[in-house]
Amino acid sequence: SQTIHQWPATLVQPVGSPLSLECTVEGTSNPNLYWYRQAAGRGLQLLFYSVGIGQISSEVPQNLSASRPQDRQFILSSKKLLLSDSGFYLCAWSTDIRLGNTIYFGEGSWLTVV
Amino acid sequence: DAKTTQPPSMDCAEGRAANLPCNHSTISGNEYVYWYRQIHSQGPQYIIHGLKNNETNEMASLIITEDRKSSTLILPHATLRDTAVYYCIVRASGTYKYIFGTGTRLKVLA
Fold first, then answer.
1. Cβ–Cβ below 8 Å for A100 and B97
2. How many whole angstroms separate alpha carbon A68 and alpha carbon A70?
3. Do B32 and A43 touch (CB under 8 A)?
4. Are B103 and B95 spatial neighbours (Cβ–Cβ below 8 Å)?
5. Angstroms from B15 CA to nearest CA on chain A
6. Mean residue pLDDT across chain A
7. Distance to chain B for A38, nearest Cα, Å
8. A105·B45 Cβ contact <8 A
9. pLDDT tens per residue, range B3-40
10. Could you identify which of A24, B42, B102, B105 might form a hypothetical disulfide with B9, taking C-beta atoms 3.0 to 4.6 angstroms apart as the criterion?
11. Higher confidence at residue B57 or residue A100?
């Protein structure tokens, strides 16, 4: 069966420090990968998605970047964090877009920028 | 932008059916309707999806109107553990993006 893991689960970082959140998927090949962010009390905002190694689409201009160095690995990064980067970050994966397939989420990472 | 409209909150008595509405009046013929729920501090959990026929699984039923402009998620016997935010989204076959709105916060009352 397929599983998705992301880490760290909780992170407290000072303003101006770098960020790296990592996500891996197991049990499937060539997944579509996603990063979402959820600010406190808000809905889910799609940040990035990737359909293959090295292929990244950005949905919202911001202080973050994403990379996909391997088929089942997706990384969210920032060189200098802002207070507004605080939130709940979720990695997700999906498969065949031609069918009514679903998206599956990881456990999430809480980021607090102080 | 999200293509769905949901009420921000609803209450339901424990053991009763919870009926969560969703409006997707601009839905296209190849767009599926998906429902997810998110319990606090967890990733969203898939519930059910459909194209035009009603669907049922072990968690819920999905009723889609004949014109497909709205749908209802039915939790037949709500429990306290069903308290969560429920998201209704639409996605076209052949697209990668799942766009979530703000959802409906369902509170099941004892």
1. no
2. 6
3. no
4. no
5. 27
6. 91
7. 10
8. yes
9. 899 999 999 999 999 999 999 998 888 888 999 999 98
10. B105
11. B57
Q: Rounded CA gap, B55 and A96, in Å? A: 20
Of residues A75, A78, A79, the one with CA closest to residue A56: A75
Which of A46, A98, A104 faces B94 most closely, judged by CB atoms? A98
SS3 call for B81:
helix
**Distance, C-alpha B27 to centroid of its chain:** 15
Q: Rounded to an integer, what distance in angstroms lies between the CA atom of residue B101 and that of residue B110?
A: 28
Q: What residues contact residue B70 under an 8 Å CB cut-off, 6+ apart?
A: B21, B22, B23, B24, B25, B64
pLDDT band for position B100 (cuts 50, 70, 90)? confident
Residues contacting A96, CB < 8 A, separation 6+: none
The two structure tokens encoding residue A98: 């031609």
CB contact under 8 A, A106 and B43: yes
Q: Tell me how far the alpha carbon of residue A43 is from its chain's centroid.
A: 15
